[in-house]
TrEMBL record:
Native source organism of the sequence: Canna indica (Indian-shot)
Record protein name field: Carboxypeptidase
Matches recorded under SUPFAM superfamilies: alpha/beta-Hydrolases
Any one GO MF annotation of this record: serine-type carboxypeptidase activity
Enzyme Commission numbers on file: 3.4.16.-
Length: 510
């Protein structure tokens, strides 16, 4: 993170935290725990921590003044167009595709515009409406469009190839660049940058109201919220906001049926404690490392508690203190890909997503999408920095009320992800207090079968389900696309534990 990108507030906080951490480390962390110095930690380890929970931001971010046609998105309305990407095979017409891109001028902001993709279901407009949120914080949902569960993937020659396991096979699918400043979303006013889940979820709720006003034919369809990584924060807050809006009869009723979190960060206190257990179980660290690094956790736990009660500066402190656990593991692990420990990290993203950036920065593509001259950036350092005070907050607390009202939750996780590992996710799901907790805890684990093979292990009780996905890392739809689509289809149909639908035809009909 370049010095020029750091706000005066963050600099002030960093100075405060430098003293705080020195005191915390000297008083609370035992002397036999050898860590980087504070200076070395905040400089050398920063990039690894920025990558944590999704992809590392680039140094550039879009300039609002460079935007062309998105300025038409005014007066709190959606400006949307049908489009057909250049380089898409099969010669399908724009009208036949049902692919849309648009901007929405967010009403409770100074000048913010939210960019989104909308892909109609390949089979029926009566299919559920599913919104996908990528994490980061500050990473664009286009990462999912082109590499996970979107309608197509990008070839090396910049042409597009149909994805037969895209989630538009089973849903009307929305991808949103959020919070403001992410991907193609922008504002000319820095006051529109969000710092907490209230601002993020309010903006998303305003967008949904406008979307369903524009697409009234879909307003009564079942609606599901999905996403991964830092969206483990976004999704519960957004689901609660939609549920609250429905109860208060605000605007259009949204037929919220469920929400799904993939390899997410939701309850940091539980999930950070699981880091060393997962790393030891997977052979990343030794028993001696395990005992030494675990001595950091009481300080982390205290810092998280202070974040929950004291606010901004203590939340930044907890972020830095707790991430020494992760950075200590990574110092031992070396160059492994912490999104998929079976592989080595290659490049700043640990994956090569350069084709997406090349494609989305093509003049022909920008013209097709109506984004003017704005430069696409995979992950925004500005958004990431702004949300640091949100990082260690517990978003599990709002989930029980949703479960009690019958809104379904699916938590799924690829087994080879370190950064948001399945073990930590399983633990917070099991520890969550709600009326069905004992029933969930005592329920048996069953195989999740796809095409006659075990694709994962499933545990369900009432509206709550947890799925450990085999042979997958952080990005489950990328690593196991067929199993991920099968998971979505069965879950939205209320048949997640029924393998009779595993023979469904997954054809790329257009």
């Amino acid at each position: 993170m370049a010095l020029a990108e750091i706000s005066p507030f963050f600099l002030f906080s960093a100075l405060f935290l430098s003293s705080f951490l020195s005191l915390a480390f000297s008083v609370l962390i035992p002397s036999d725990v050898h860590l980087h110095s504070t200076a070395d930690f905040s400089h050398t380890s920063a990039e690894k921590l920025i990558q944590a929970l999704n992809l590392i931001p680039q140094d550039a971010s879009p300039e609002p003044s460079a935007v062309g046609s998105p300025s038409d998105a005014s007066q709190n309305r959606i400006v949307e167009r049908r489009f057909r990407f250049p380089g898409l095979s099969d010669g399908v017409s724009v009208d036949d595709l049902g692919h849309h891109a648009g901007y929405y001028s967010l009403p409770h902001t100074h000048d913010a515009r939210m960019f989104y993709f909308f892909f109609e279901s390949r089979h029926s407009t009566k299919d559920p409406v599913v919104i996908w949120l990528t994490g980061g914080p500050g990473c664009s949902s286009e990462l999912a469009v082109f590499y996970e569960n979107g309608p197509f993937t990008i070839s090396n020659n910049m042409s597009l190839v149909w994805n037969q396991f895209g989630w538009d096979q089973a849903s009307n699918l929305i991808y949103v660049d959020q919070p403001t400043g992410t991907g193609f979303s922008y504002s000319s006013d820095k006051r529109d940058i969000r710092h907490d889940e209230t601002g993020v979820s309010d903006d998303l709720y305003d967008f949904l109201q406008a979307f369903f006003a524009e697409h009234s034919e879909l307003a009564k369809n079942d609606f599901y919220i999905t996403g991964e990584s830092y969206a483990g924060h976004y999704i519960p807050a957004f689901a609660s906001r939609v549920h609250q809006g429905n109860k208060n009869k605000e605007g259009i009723h949204i037929n919220l049926k469920g929400f799904a979190i993939g390899n997410g960060l939701t309850d940091p206190a539980i999930q950070y404690k699981a880091y060393t257990d997962y790393a030891l179980d997977m052979g990343i660290i030794k028993e001696s490392d395990y005992k030494r690094i675990n001595k950091i956790y009481p300080t982390c736990e205290l810092a998280i508690k202070l974040c929950g009660t004291s606010g901004t500066v203590s939340c930044l402190a907890s972020y830095l203190v707790c991430n020494t656990i992760f950075s200590s593991i990574m110092k031992i692990a070396g160059n492994i890909n912490y999104y998929d420990i079976r592989t080595q990290c290659e490049g700043s993203l640990c994956y090569d997503f350069s084709n997406m950036e090349k494609f989305l920065n093509l003049a022909s593509v920008r013209e097709t999408l109506g984004v003017g001259n704005i430069e696409f950036v995979s992950c925004s350092p500005t958004v990431y920095q702004a949300m640091l005070t949100d990082w260690m907050r517990n978003l599990e607390v709002g989930i029980p009320a949703l479960l009690e009202d019958g809104i379904k939750l699916l938590v799924y996780a690829g087994e080879y992800d370190l950064i948001c590992n399945w073990l930590g996710n399983s633990r917070w799901v099991h520890a969550m207090e709600w009326s069905g907790q004992s029933g969930f805890v005592s329920s048996s684990e069953t195989p999740f079968m796809v095409d006659g093979s075990e694709a994962g292990l499933l545990k369900s009780h009432g509206p709550l389900s947890f799925l450990k996905v085999h042979d997958a890392g952080h990005m489950v739809p990328m690593d196991q696309p067929k199993a991920a689509l099968e998971m979505l289809k069965r879950w939205t149909e209320g048949k997640l534990d029924d393998d009779s639908s595993s023979s469904m035809k997954l054809t790329a009909e257009m």
